[in-house]
Amino acid sequence: MCGIVGVTCLPGKLETPAKIIRKCLERLEYRGYDSVGLASVFKNRIIVRKGKGKINEVHRRLNFDGVPGNTVIGHTRWATHGAPSDNNAHPHLDCGNVVAIVHNGIIKNYLELKKKLILKGHVFRSETDTEVVAHLIEEHLSKGLDPYKAFKEAIKEIKGSYAIAAILVSEPDKIFFAKKDSPLIIGVGEGFNFVASDIPAFLDYTRRIIVIRDHEVGYITPTSIFIENLLKEEPVDIGRRFRIISWTAEMAVKAGYPHYMLKEIHEQPRALRETINGLSSEIDEAAKMIIEARRVFIAAAGTSFHAGLVLDYYLNSIAGIPSIPLIASEYSKYSKSVKPGDLLVAISQSGETIDTLMAVREFKKRGAKILAISNVIDSAIPRESHLTVYTRAGPEIGVAATKTFTTQVVVELAITLKIAEENGLLSKSEVHRLKSQLEHVPKIVEKTIMKYEAYVNNIAEIIHLKKSMYYLGRGLGVPIAMEGALKLKEIAYIHAEAYPAGESKHGPIALIEKDFPVLFVVLNDENSENILGNITEMKARNALTIGLIPENFREFEEVLDYSVKMPMHNYILAPITYTPILQLLAYYTAVKRGYDPDKPRNLAKTVTVE
Amino acid sequence: MFQYRLKAVVLAGGKGERLRPLTDCVPKSMVRIVGKPVIDYVLEGLRKLPLDEVIIVLSHKKLAKYVEEKWSNIIPVTTIYQKGEGIEGAVLTAKELLGKQMFMLAYGDIVISPKAYVRTLETHINSGADASILLSPKLDVESYGIAYVSENKIVNVKEKPLPEKAESTLAIAGVFVLPPMFLDYVEEYGFTDALNILAEKITMAPCFWEDWWVDIGYPWDILKANEYVLKDLKYSQISSNAVISSKAVIEGPVIIDDDAEICHYAVIKGPIYIGKGSFIGDHCLIRRFASIEENTIVGAFSEVKYSSIQPNVTISSHSYIGDSVVGENSVIGPNTVTLNILPSGVKVSRLHPIRIRGKMVTKLGAIIGCNVYIGANNVLYAGSVIESNTRTSPHTIITHKESP
Q1: CA-CA distance, A89 to A76, in Å (whole number)?
Q2: In 3D, which of B190, B55, B50, B192 has the Cα closest to residue B133?
Q3: C-beta of residue B147 within 8 angstroms of C-beta of residue B172
Q4: DSSP-derived secondary structure letter, A181
């Protein structure tokens, strides 16, 4: 996902259009934030300023506000094709610097087009799919087509999804646009017009909008708008398409969800699917690194640490490889014994977590190899690692990690299955069977969320009045319980403690009194009988018991006060299928307590101070 | 050059069968929730939107009169009497007035924050979807329309599925943005199938509602709606025209409306509502989500909790009214007691057991219709229903149902 925006205005109508575009880009930062840039037409040439980094960082370096011109386009990027870099940042230019393009989406046939264009002598400066559009327009211009025709012909040649805005030197007061499958909206002003990926981008300047539909192309000038349907080649009657936004549209960016967190919980089926589809040769290389390692350490913080504990479980009990999980900030305890041949698996959603980065540096200095799992292409930890496997969860805005946890587990499971296959602990057919179950996981998660959202909301109604809660599990259930407890602490501000259920008798059960809530994570594994005993002992002390149980565990249902029945599947998938339920529980509890789950107090999305 | 055309239809017709006997003398949308008829909650949401016309489909003169008097100066309302039966009949009544434009559809019996209406239209416009529906999780799938969402699109809609067969728990919360072709489909296939055809043919976007909302279907939904509305009270509002004894105790957020009178030693524990011109006698206890609508009298030493007392009711002294709904113009004799714990194992649609001191219990008192006269010293069993216009003798024990 990326964000695009453009404005064209009559001279003097808007003060410093480039500055306005920078402000619009800040509003679009939720759509991506690994690089940013803008371009304007000024005195018969195109001026481009772009670079890798967040908007404020790049602005400090390049001073966006100083770019002259009354027609400006901008872009904020979330890398898909080509790592974040100054070159890969948008806008992209053609060979003759007469066209600048910003694009959100994926052009599927770009490799084929790029080859053709290179044969015709075009020189490419980036690894992006977007750049082909600039060169295609240049190609059509050189055939003598007028600018708008050239733009249209270029759009006809590309396949995939796109929202595109283009400026041309020869048409200094026009922004050309096209849309298919990615959002694009026109903001209608007096003496100026905007295009953008969403309404909030330009809401400070106008409240009159037109939503562009698929297969529509056209252009805006400061005083006019032209839209036509590319398939029918007929102009659109824009009079009927105007809408007025008479309220603040902060909601709009969350695609119909009240909070980013709920959106991201619901987005998990898609994030999981994209991560599964994106699994590639890096998995094999990662498996090889782990097999060849003398010792395997796993370092991470927060939710990623829980994903680390899942990996620890997978490696030990499926792949037969002992591992040492550690909380990243405690690395110095372990690093003193590190020697060449050791491996550190560093897990960080942002790739910038300072504690994990420090661990990476220290381990590397002592000769260990580094394998990173991250969601942000080419971020600090991946850059300093020998190999990175990326999750494809897309940008995560909610401070409480949701979809990045479940996608991290997908990557870990894929690596584990590869190792188990290599070292013969699992037969080829077993691996095949598990892989096909993994393929079904996105659908299972979707169905589970659909089926239990109301029930979980109902449990939250009870939990939200409590001061304290336990989350218990055994085996692989422990990291799931820990993740559930962390979510409740983070956003609902209820004290929650997670520990292996067997530990109850050694202390924590002393705190149990009437109606003390205890949540059990029950898996379809060898621990189920023992955990039933734990439930009964809590019940005997009048605790309020809640369980996530496999759906045919009837005897559990009878004992528990509330049970969420999970679909039957191999228990090793549970971190992916169970966790969304615990995320929803924390979410609805926070909402009922009147807190904003997207902005938990005292917490930052990416922790960059030790 | 600006054309902005959006009309809204509010479905406020029908008999309100499930809400009987309360709907014997008032239409469903006129039932009071914390000082306002249900329809006000809908229109307060719609007035925040840029609407050309709000078409209210209704069946009662009382409602038409109320809407025209109270709302016609505020929003462009048109009232029209429902022609056909059921939701299809209601929707199609508005067909001609709607023309060939996208429109909003709102159920006339939903109590929800005005923000829900704004969010639905906002989501619709920004997503560029062809239709949008407000969805919110509800446990009792068997009494709602249920939508399944995949990849941020509504894939199908099922009307009141059996709980064991329901694939989703996202209930349709009664706010829609729909294209004109929907009306043609309703005509041919009925309401739910028309939605399913839309889901197949065009993009129907979900808009999520995470906060409370109540569909006023059953009498106990009134109690739930009172609870939610009163829970949201942040501070007390006490009219300067209310007469409150210096000896009365008032705690927690309360609304005490114009000309209400609270006598000596009454204890009022919010959140509660006391309507215009109501009278609370000496030593009364009014507590926990009680909503006492206008011109009601609560006699000395009586207790009212978690109940809805509709307008013009008299509750005589020494009575206990808990978890109950009392219809308009009824009189309850002195020393009347409502029992309010249902026998275990009794299941009531949309009514959920609560945990009290370690035990799960379902609470429901009596449902009393309009113009009822209850004699002195009556005992009303939990879940009993007193039909409108009934008179009971002193010392009657009502276990189940009482008719005139």
Answers
A1: 8
A2: B192
A3: yes
A4: B
User: Most B CBs within 10 Å: which of A247, A263, A541, as the mutation test of the B interface?
Assistant: A247
pLDDT at B1: 28
ipTM: 0.83
* Nearest-by-Cβ selection for A258 from B167, B210, B355: B210
Rounded Cα gap, residues A587 and A585, in angstroms: 5
- Residue B119: its chain A contacts at CB < 8 A? 251, 256, 258
A 10 A CB-CB count for B1 gives 6
Which residues of chain B lie closer than 8 angstroms to A447, CB-CB? 167
Which of B210, B350, B359 would best serve as a mutation to test chain A binding (most A beta carbons within 10 A)?
B210
Outline which parts of chain A fall under CATH 3.40.50.10490. Answer: 260-592
CB-closest option in B118, B128, B358 to A213: B128
B97's enclosing H/E stretch is: helix B95-98
Residues paired with B205 in a beta bridge: B132
Stretch B204-208: mean pLDDT = 92
Contact with chain A for residue B167, Cβ under 8 A: yes
In the block, residue with structure tokens 């028309």? B194
What is the length of chain B? 404
> Which residue in this structure is represented by tokens 């979410």?
A587
Question: What dihedral do alpha carbons A355, A361, A366, A368 form, nearest 10°?
Answer: 90
Question: For the whole prediction, is pTM greater than 0.80?
Answer: yes
Nearest CA in chain B to A245: B122
Q: How far apart are CA B120 and CA A60, in angstroms?
A: 39
Residue B215 is which amino acid? D
The mean pLDDT of chain B is 91
Q: What mean pLDDT is predicted for residues A532-561?
A: 91
- Asked which of A404-413, A595-604, B152-161, B179-188 is least confident by mean pLDDT, the reply is A595-604
A219: Cα separation from own chain's centroid: 32
A247 interaction partners in chain B (CB closer than 8 Å): 48, 118, 122
Two structure tokens written together for B282: 């000496």
CB atoms within 10 A of CB A242: 18
Best A243, A244, A274 member to test B by mutation, with max B CBs in 10 Å, is A243
* CA distances (Å), origin B395, targets B278, B334, B337, B339, B372: 27, 11, 11, 15, 16
Please confirm, yes or no, whether A418 is among the known catalytic residues: no
Domain with CATH 3.60.20.10 in chain A: 3-247
User: Closest chain A residue to B204 measured between Cα atoms?
Assistant: A256
> Regarding beta strands B131-137 and B170-178, do their DSSP bridges make them parallel or antiparallel, or are they unpaired?
antiparallel
Separation CA A279–CA A541 (nearest Å): 47
Cβ(A171)–Cβ(A245) below 8 Å:
no
Q: Which residue of chain A has the CA closest to B47?
A: A246
Contact assignment for B138 to A454 by CB distance below 8 Å: yes
- Cβ under 8 Å to A: B residues 348-387: 352, 355, 357-358
Q: Is A467 a catalytic residue?
A: no
Q: What is the mean pLDDT of residues A454-476?
A: 94
- Name the β-bridge partners of A546: A519, A562
CA distance B334 to B299: 8
Domains and CATH numbers, chain B: 7-217 (3.90.550.10), 220-402 (2.160.10.10)
Contacts of B3 in chain A (CB under 8 A): 239-240, 242
Q: What is the CATH number of domain A260-592?
A: 3.40.50.10490
Q: Tokens 């949540």 map to which residue?
A: A519
Helices and strands, number each (H, E), in chain B: 8, 39
Q: Domain A3-247: what homologous superfamily?
A: Aminohydrolase, N-terminal nucleophile (Ntn) domain (3.60.20.10)
**B149 part of contact set with chain A, CB < 8 Å:** yes
Q: Which of A240, A244, A255 is closest, CB to CB, to B50?
A: A244
| Alpha-carbon span B395 to A143, nearest angstrom | 100
